[in-house]
C-alpha cells in the first residue's frame, strides 16, 4: 500500500492493518521528512488517545492529515504505533 499526498509517496508498506476502513502503516514505513507532530489529540473510546502529524510536501502543509496511537487499549494492539491518513491523502495499492 502507498499513501500519497501532493503527488508524492509519503508512506509505503506491504504490512498495513485495516481498521474502520483506514489503512494503518507501520511507523517505520512513513517517510519522516514529511511529518511534523502537532499538539492535536483526540480520544477514541476503544483505541485510546490519538496524536496527529501535519504532512508537508513541496512547501504545502496538510494540517493533522495523519494520526497514530502511541499507546492503545488491548483491543487495538495491532495498530499501536501505526500511522493512518485522511484529509486528502490517497491510500492505494
From TrEMBL:
Record Pfam families = NTP_transf_9 (PF04248)
Q: Which residues belong to the signal peptide in this entry?
A: none
Q: Which InterPro entries match?
A: DUF427, DUF427_sf
Domain DUF427, by residue range, is 1-87
Please give the superkingdom of this protein's source. Bacteria
What's the protein name?
Answer: DUF427 domain-containing protein
Q: Which organism is it from?
A: Cellulophaga geojensis KL-A
Amino acid at each position: 500500500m502507498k499513501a500519497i499526498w501532493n503527488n508524492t509517496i509519503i508512506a509505503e508498506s506491504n504490512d498495513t492493518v485495516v481498521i474502520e476502513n483506514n489503512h494503518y502503516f507501520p511507523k517505520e514505513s512513513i517517510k519522516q521528512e514529511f511529518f511534523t507532530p502537532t499538539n492535536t489529540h483526540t480520544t477514541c473510546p476503544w483505541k485510546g488517545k490519538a496524536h496527529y502529524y501535519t504532512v508537508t510536501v513541496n512547501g504545502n502543509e496538510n494540517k493533522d492529515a495523519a494520526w497514530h496511537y502511541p499507546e492503545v487499549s488491548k483491543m487495538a494492539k495491532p495498530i499501536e504505533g501505526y500511522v493512518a491518513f485522511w484529509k486528502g491523502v490517497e491510500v492505494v495499492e
